[in-house]
Design brief:
single chain, Ku70, Chain: A, Domain 2, 6 helices, 26% strand, alpha+beta, two-stranded antiparallel ribbon
């Protein structure tokens, strides 16, 4: 089933306009559990309760405020909030082009796929080819839903991918974090660590090698419960011991990795097939 566009917009740079459609670039497959009444397994609903008087408040009787001090709020009316909002014209205005490698991954937030909208195929292809040949990405601002989001456009697989970016003041500085600067590391320890890195290294990142093992176990458990089977809890792994001798730990790790193919994943016992696959398939339809 073809994905459905979540929005549309217009990319502008210079006098060039590119009508585009926006598609979500990712889809979460995390399991979500509903809160139920333990007495009858009926689903619970949330209510808004006033912390001062305990009264249950309906949605239409609420207002919005900013807490500028503990327990003190500036209340903003609907018209005041609307006046603060930017023009939501769905425009993506490019401000500059930068090398992709110059952007630290910490700034990346959500990802979207952009496809050409009606009449936008040719300028879309122009922008894709130009960014690929130049090896550059486009930084701009996306005006949507009353807000202005900092974004990066980049060529990906012959199309345009848009990433929403955090602003600089939203990214924490490492200066606030203890980085163990007062501890010295021996040259031999660094050499052993590099050897271990090389043994575990792969030429490139392949996301298909990894799966959400927690979700897999949960789906298998759910399938067993649906089928009315008795569920036996598996013993949890014992906690890992604290590293006492770093050199000995590195040497032991190198020895363990040397017994298997470099870059290969640890072997695991084969799992019994269950109906978890059918549950995943049903959930995606």
């Amino acid at each position: 089933m073809a994905p459905r566009a979540i929005s549309s917009g217009i990319i502008t740079f210079g006098l060039v306009s590119v009508p585009v459609k926006l598609f979500s670039g990712t889809q979460s497959k995390s399991l979500h559990f509903n809160m139920l009444h333990a007495k009858d397994n009926a689903r619970l609903k949330q209510q808004l309760v006033c912390t001062a008087c305990g009264e249950v408040v309906e949605r239409n009787a609420t207002s919005r405020g900013y807490e500028y001090a503990k327990g003190q709020y500036v209340v903003l009316g609907t018209d005041e909030i609307k006046a603060l909002e930017s023009q939501s014209d769905q425009s993506i205005e490019i401000e500059e082009f930068v090398p992709i490698a110059s952007i630290d991954p910490v700034f990346f937030d959500k990802a979207y796929l952009l496809g050409p909208d009606k009449g936008g195929a040719k300028p879309y292809r122009l922008l894709v080819d130009a960014m690929r040949e130049a090896g550059m990405g486009a930084v701009g601002r996306f005006s949507s839903r009353g807000q202005q989001q900092l974004v990066l456009l980049r060529e990906a697989e012959g199309g345009i991918m848009m990433h929403s970016l955090f602003y600089a003041d939203e990214v924490r500085d490492f200066a606030e974090i203890d980085r163990g600067d007062g501890v010295s590391v021996k040259e031999g320890e660094v050499s052993l660590a590099i050897q271990l890195i090389e043994q575990l290294a792969s030429k490139k990142f392949d996301a298909t090698k990894f799966e959400d093992e927690h979700r897999q176990r949960a789906l298998e458990l759910i399938e067993q419960k649906v089928a009315g089977k008795e569920v036996v809890a598996t013993p949890s792994e014992p906690p890992k011991g604290q590293i006492i001798d770093l050199m000995e730990a590195l040497k032991a790790s190198l020895a363990a990795e040397g017994t298997r193919e470099i870059g290969a994943k640890p072997r695991k016992p084969p799992r019994k097939k269950s109906g978890a696959k059918s549950l995943r398939k049903a959930g995606s339809e």
